[in-house]
């Protein structure tokens, strides 16, 4: 396994739409393992493939690592098939280190995807898990959570980022 470099806001790959995964082979599984290692090392909740420079519809999540019982979830070619309710909570992103802001998300989602072996599955998530799935799916569309900020908050964020962007 190898750690990958996490792309930071301003990197054009974060704004590109990821392409469907066509083949789940050893090379893709290597990428998945690398993404997991990169996510754990960065103590992130989730990581999308384009955050490490790969334009593929794939993300990894671990909602339990902070409780000390890691459980890696792999979503290949994910889609949200149903949603319910609304929540407004603080979010952050490994590609925008040091910043967090509240955004509106659906409270519950039903996701359909393929796992690391290519087996289809459906998963219902709520709260933190639902937010994480929506955040990572946005990455695959080239969307970042700061895009949802109000014009005022967005301009404050841009000023903050100018000062705090990692060099
Ligand atoms: Zn993110």
From TrEMBL:
User: What is the free-text note on the cofactor?
Assistant: Binds 1 Fe(2+) ion.
User: Residues that bind Fe cation, according to the entry?
Assistant: 93, 135, 139
State which Enzyme Commission number(s) the record gives: 3.5.1.88
Q: Which reaction does it catalyse?
A: N-terminal N-formyl-L-methionyl-[peptide] + H2O = N-terminal L-methionyl-[peptide] + formate
User: GO terms for molecular function, please?
Assistant: metal ion binding; peptide deformylase activity
Quote the InterPro entries the UniProt record gives. Answer: Peptide_deformylase, Peptide_deformylase_sf
Keyword annotations from UniProtKB, A to Z: Hydrolase, Iron, Metal-binding, Protein biosynthesis
Which SUPFAM superfamilies does the entry mention?
A: Peptide deformylase
Which cofactor does this sequence's record say it needs?
Fe(2+)
Family label: Belongs to the polypeptide deformylase family.
What NCBIfam families does its record include? pept_deformyl, PRK00150.1-3
* HAMAP family registered for this protein in UniProt: Pep_deformylase
| Listed name of the protein | Peptide deformylase
Record organism: Thermodesulfatator atlanticus
């Amino acid at each position: 396994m190898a750690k990958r470099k996490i792309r930071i806001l301003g990197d054009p790959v974060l704004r590109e739409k990821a392409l469907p995964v066509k083949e789940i082979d050893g090379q893709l599984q290597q990428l998945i393992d690398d993404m997991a290692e990169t996510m754990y090392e960065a103590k992130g909740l989730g990581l999308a493939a384009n955050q490490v420079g790969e334009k593929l519809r794939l993300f990894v999540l671990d909602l339990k690592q902070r409780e000390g019982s890691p459980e890696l979830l792999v979503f290949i070619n994910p889609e949200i098939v149903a949603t319910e309710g609304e929540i407004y909570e603080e979010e952050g992103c490994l590609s925008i280190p040091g910043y967090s802001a509240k955004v509106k998300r659906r409270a519950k989602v039903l996701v359909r995807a393929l796992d690391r072996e290519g087996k289809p599955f459906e998963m219902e998530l709520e709260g933190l898990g639902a937010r994480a799935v929506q955040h990572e799916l946005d990455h695959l569309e080239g969307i970042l959570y700061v895009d949802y900020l109000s014009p005022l908050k967005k301009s404050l964020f841009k000023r903050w980022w100018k000062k705090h962007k990692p060099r």
